[in-house]
Amino acid sequence: MAVDWSGARLDGHRRTWLATARRPRVGRDRSIVTRLENGRTREQVVEHLIELARRDPRLVVGLDFAFSFPAWFLRSRGLASAREAWAYAADEGEAWLAHCPFPFWGRPGARRPRYDGERVAWRETESETVRVRGISPKTVFQVGGAGSVGTGSIRGMPSLAALSDAGFSVWPFDPARLPLVVEIYPRDLTGPVNKSSRVARALRVQQCLPHESRAIQDLAGASEDAFDAAISVARMSRHARDFARLEPARTPTERLEGRIWRPRREPVFDR
After folding, report:
1. What are the pLDDT digits (tens) for 161-202?
2. Is the pLDDT higher at 201 or at 130?
3. Rounded to 5 degrees, what angle do the CA atoms 149, 153, 154 make?
4. How remote is the C-alpha of 220 from its chain's centroid?
5. CB distance 40 to 5 below 8 Å
């Protein structure tokens, strides 16, 4: 399952999209996306994922928000783990969003601060991401403005604690086991496409989801959020066997910051 997450306070249920998929198979029915829908609040999404995992513990979920902060931020607050950061975000997150204290920015009147070599804006996993047509991940500290992910991440981190308490492995902080939650970056999964163009989305859907029903294809191309969820879950499905082989956090920094899941390169898809 892929979840295109929304941090919006009022209409998050409309902008949060879920897509489920099965492994590709040979035969007459070669479709992989089995469901594409919105309408759930963040809390309802978490409850839904927990219920799905109870029925089928083989569930793998990709969530498109940052699972932690840069390591220096955790250390400066005396936080020794990502789980402590999730609890800290649950307690302080709404105040960060309202007042934008350093290092947060993006609300009206809160300009981007100057970072330095010791206090960087990005996690290592974001800095390693290859730009897609000049676009790369935003910093979790940006909580307003175009493409910002900070609001969704801050309001999403407490959900990771709830999923962990329900038995999910949250990678890479935990060893990879099912049910499993990973962080995804949809731009890395959809490839270079002008997502603001409905025509461009429709063409990419035809390329990536050629065997889906017309209803799924139309829905996937109708909005950027649905598009991200559908294409992301299709890429996850093609690499389903890889999730069991994921390595846990490799360095002390990664144990604090987490890591974005990325599939093996697919030259034909990339081209």
Report:
1. 999 999 999 999 999 999 999 999 999 898 888 888 999 999
2. 201
3. 120
4. 17
5. no
